[in-house]
Protein 1
Amino acid sequence: MTISSATALAHPNIAFIKYWGNRDDSLRLPQNGSISMNLAELSTRTMLTFDPSLPRDIFDLNGTRQSGESLHRVTNHLNIIRGLRGVSVHAHIMSENNFPADAGIASSASAFAALTLAAVSALGIEMSEKDLSRLARRGSGSACRSIPGGYVEWYRGNTDVDSFAVSFAEPGHWDLADCIAIVDIGQKKVGSSLGHTLAKSSPLQEARVLDADRRIDICKQAIRNRDFTALAEVIELDSNLLHAIMMTSHPPLYYWMPATLEIMYAVQSWRKTGTPVAFTVDAGPNVHVICESDSSKQVRQRLSKMPMVKDVIVTHPGGKARLV
Ligand code: PMV
């Protein structure tokens, strides 16, 4: 094989109905389906070069050479993709996030979506969006939702073949904003891969999973109808259910910090006094404050005035993963 390269860009996504817990950890088959929105202003750009002269994979993230778990995860994912072509050639991967590594914004979704697209195209493999999404899922579950654009549903599926994500509304369908209130930077937390394995130890997980399709339907309908009141109610419920599982796992995981709860209270009081806003919180303490774009300036100002908020990053619905 000769040297071949490709560069791909993908956006992270914020889940409105969240994924937590796998039926199959190695295939990353989720226990429940999920819904998300890609985040346009944030992205991972990955340049990948397959080079027969390399003795092993080399992975540079934001200019820093990676080793250990971070390199291992990338190599494992590339092994799956190399296996599709029956090749063993190593790669040099240069990946850059346009958002600070210490902002507490999960980058594995955009990272594995961009890595998958770059590797597949550098190997000259023709692949449908569905199959790219299935493949990205193997690197990080939520990465399958960063392959299609806009508002996305990840079908839970039953096997590797039917667990993938599709777009159900274009980014321009509804001009929402995600105002990410950063309350903590750089603190090490329990990563989501370990979190997924702990989910089943919570006595509440079964109830959360059983009710997931109902929440997915409500959330999709709210997005289709641009019904903010319905969206706010279902995403806050879903976020609280996720954290209830985390806090009741064995061992328990506490991602909220006092500042997280303070913002959640503030968001609820702003909504009561007429501003359409809602919160959702992932596997970290930062709060994603969702609103319609015309209120984002006001929401950012209010968040910025809170003493424990270190920064506010405002993002809008983003497109699909693409070659650049
Ligand atoms: O894709 P992972 O393994 O990083 O898991 C993502 C988990 C959450 O962000 C908490 C929820 C989600 O659906 O994105």
Note: The longest strand covers residues 4-10.
Protein 2
Amino acid sequence: MLLPVNLNVDGGWCVLIGGGESATRKARLLAKANAKLCVLACNDFNASNPELAELVAASQGRAVNWSQEQKSPVELLEKRLVNAHLCVIACEGVGHAMQRKLSAICVKNRIPVNVVDKPELCTFTFPAIVERGSLSVAISTDGKAPVLARQLRSRIEALLPSQYGALVDLAGEYRDRVKSRLTDAVSRRRFWENTLDGPAAEQVFSGNLQTARHIIETELATQDFSKTGEVYLVGAGPGDPELLTLRALRLMQQADVVFYDRLVADDIMELVRRDAQRIYVGKERANHSTPQAEINELLLQYALEGKRVLRLKGGDPFIFGRGGEEIEHLAANGVDFQVVPGITAAAACASYSGIPLTHRDHAQSVRFITGHLKQGQLELSWSELLDEQQTLVFYMGLHAASTISQQLIAHGRSACTPTAIVESGSIPAQRVVVASLEMLPRALEEHNIRSPAVIIIGSVVQLHEKLAWFNTIDKVE
Ligand code: SAH
């Protein structure tokens, strides 16, 4: 791999050989970097290439013409290389042998040299560049796939708002102030992370530089950027990465450490910042690998160390997610946190199996219920669950399915109530099995349904025949 570096040639001599179009392209680039241009050409290009002549004059450089000086380019180059930062050979007319000679002189003098379109004669190459004022993104393929570099450049072009340069300049403007106001590196990093990806940046992107400055001034005056970290309690949704919220994705990209469990799909973990530390605190029924109290304490400890801690939860953190307990502990210890809602399993499973949870003709309300057994028992207020116009969604209900079916029927809900089991909702492995409430336990067994799965009970289930779009549905009659 070639070493990518950003070279400071400000006010320094750069030698450019050639007076044509390709030399002009390089001259533009060098002029932007504020180099002094020394152009060696075979003839006078003042009339034939006024742009190049202009660039040379503006850089306070000089143009040397070897037919007029009656010297060979080799002689001229040897003289001009003293004090040069680099040399670019962009001369269509001189032939390969001469280019090789010129390049060899540079190498001998240890001056970086680029010969346009001759990678074998170069000691450095020019990357494809995306420019936004002082911000530049350089793409190199080590000369192996220039077209790919250009394609990537267009993608990056589309990704970076045109005002990014202004944001960089604004950061430059405040750099020294921030350094003297915030003396430790962690606070400074925090400050810049907030500023460059927060309201101030938004203002720059909408062209309101003054408002952006005002926000920065206020933050600098009032905020305490000392070392305490923060916890992001983030709902990662049911499995399909496309169902993440934009905020979830942004925080996933910012975290220093991530705590996750079995319900968070691999595809979603892929989107967490590459160099974040990953800690598995997986929970399985009756086999909690890390007890809840310990998770609460771990989140707290990492945050107190100054880390940005991401707690990723399947679905929504506040729906059967014990998210409340985790942040209670943080709040009690004065640690900042944010909670980001996610799409809960009931909502996702319903959409992906074509079962609206409410419907004017079928159900006016929906109830999310935990089917988690306590000491082998499921104790619920069964008599509250009999309304034919209410949809029931059981989470963690596989082990209690027989109880659910028997108790609801015994208390008076019709044995024919349509029921759906949605396993691994929203991901390609999703399976949906439809049965009557009475047949629910048999359906689970026949189809060997595994966790995670939700059980949806109510007349809305009938609608799946019309509305299912994601994948096929099995029926147990
Ligand atoms: N906080 C989560 C629920 C955690 S409890 C949420 O809002 O979705 C764990 C239960 O959620 C599982 O036992 C299962 O009933 C349900 N669940 C989670 N993801 C699921 C999925 N992809 N498909 C079906 N059920 C799921």
Note: Residues 18 and 92 are 7 Å apart (CA to CA).
